[in-house]
Protein: Acyltransferase PGAP2
Amino acid sequence: MLPVPYSNLDRPLIRLRFTSFAVGTVLLPLTGLIACLSISLFYHFEDATYTHCQVSNYLPSISSAISRVPERYIWRCCIGLHSAPRYLLSAAYFSFYRGCFMQKLPELLLSCLALLCSLAENTGLLLLTYVASTETYNVHKNGFIVFIGSSLLHMLITCRLWHVIKRYYGNQEEMTSYRWKMRLFLFNCSCCLVAYYFFRRHNKYCEPGIYTLFALCEYLVVFSNMAFHMTAFWDFGSKEVIVAMPPEDKRY
Structure:
């Protein structure tokens, strides 16, 4: 998206509705994750569901599902293609917030923090994607921590900003977006807490099936995160993404 009027642009190279852009951006990690989980379950079940205490487990964790071949390359390809639109989306949201809150200093500062959290979330996702848990575990773990921490903080700040937007500027689409953001944020937080509980319980007691429940909650955390970002469908539904050449400065 370019902050200049169409009349100042040469013929656009690519012109895409933002709704299609949002759907495509979310489908990349969704399709990649489903493919990796399916391949792990059908072809690498024993390795993918192995736990350190060797108890019964029926689902692989996401880290396990994306650490083998060809799952590793499928996931890296999907996240690599997904990351550039995500950075663009972070910039688009910041531009939108800056226009809404130019005269409101607290919300403007929150907008800056939301931008930093969004960039950190995407960077953490890239880090845990390209450094598998079977390669350098500490780097993968730190990437996961950055991803989860910045994701939750970004969701919280976004819900706060959209609470203000709905109060002063909101139309029907923005009201719908705000309601779904709140629901998905609360659901995501709940899943994170339950996943942490099952993870700690598995490591402490090594009960059969507990790691399966952790893996299931981990899936729900990621799916709800994707759904949260999908609310951009309502936020920018009337906008377009345009890739164009700037006008040539012809001087004779």
Remarks:
- The chain has one domain: 13-239.
- The chain is about 70% helix and 5% strand.
- The beta strands are 12-17, 240-244.
- The longest strand covers residues 12-17.
